[in-house]
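User: Structure tokens for both sequences below?

Assistant:
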Amino acid sequence: MVKRDSLLLAVVMTAVCTFPVFAQDKAADEQQQPAAAPAPVETPAAAPVVAPASGQDLQWIWGEVVTVDGQAKSMSVKYLDYDSDTEKTIDIAADPDTKFEEVKGMGDIKPQDTVSIEYLAKDGKNVAKGITVERIEQTDVGEGTESPAAAPEKVGTGPIAPPEQNNEAPADTESSK
């Protein structure tokens, strides 16, 4: 039994002591040899991205719709200009190539909607390439139910109610019989 434990201890100690030496040798070898170029990674085919025409940069804003003109297919959007840290308003027009998300078209967009818009400055106008409307879902509170904020807090009525302080002895104990 003692021989077996001694042999096991010797094997473990040998492995523990020699591991750092082998690790250092590998690190030294890697420093001496130049690293091979990583193999090119193939990406799956995605939808083609239409690059803006030369001299045009795709811009992005996120803001609140102020006005909508459905016939002219344009709207005004109030947004925060991050460069100057001020609120600004911009006029955006839609063209037949504009993609809409969460709505069917410009006629479904209402003032006070929150929108995310990708657009190009084209011929002195801001033309939207993509418009996403972000609407917050509101849940109705049914009749006869109180919202958690309106419910008064009732102390001591939960599952862990404080014991009542009663100094009187119970009437039907064994000692009184």
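Moving on to the next sequence.
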Amino acid sequence: MTKLRLTVSIVVVVVAAIAASTVASAAGIGERAKIVPFTAKYAGTAVVQVTDTIADISANGAGTATLIGAGVQGRAHLPVLGYVLPGVALHLFDRDVRRSEALAAAAQATPGIGAVEIHAAARDAVEGSDVVLTAASFGPAEERQRMNNDWLAPGATVIPVDYATYCAAEVARDAALFLVDQREQYLANRDAGNFDGYPDPHATLGEALLAGTARPEGRVVVTHLGVGLSDVVFADAILRSAEAADLGVRLPR
């Protein structure tokens, strides 16, 4: 059983990056910095979680990924996917075809991303993909949770950045492993109606990392809400970079 190694996408400024590879680990964060450039607009970028089996799924070793949502979050994840899954075949969907086309152009110019295909329907974009990342705009409750088990490959890794906008509760309930980034925040959002029908998580990302959790057979769902610690790390990176470049103005307290 392979270990579930989680790439923690702690965003940093320009010269820093995600500690990521097809087999990424928490210990690699310091060693792997300075690979994928990020800017301030990427603050809040979700964790991209990959297993060491994903890259071996497809014939070319690159695998397939789906990105739903062609906004700022979708665009922010392009360099992550290109780095974590070099050569990945990327499938895109957005309700606005012009946004999809713009994202496809950006994807084609992103190192590490291979073929890019735009789909007219979200389900068509999702079916068969090894990694499914949803980053759509939030909508009313009646429009949520449309992506159910029938859409997904049996061993897919599902990364909902958009809460339950696309990912149905049954996907999390039936997952072999369901992780969240912060348990209390997730439960509070569930109580508030943002995760209707969702189960309790098996663990948090941090707990899975510390435990060396093995990736089980079947689907893995990692739900990201965004935690304050990422903002602290991001702010620290900005400050360090500014000080190193002698930029900015120190304001009085």
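User: Anything stand out in the second?

Assistant: Residues 58-225 form a domain with the Rossmann fold fold (CATH 3.40.50.720).
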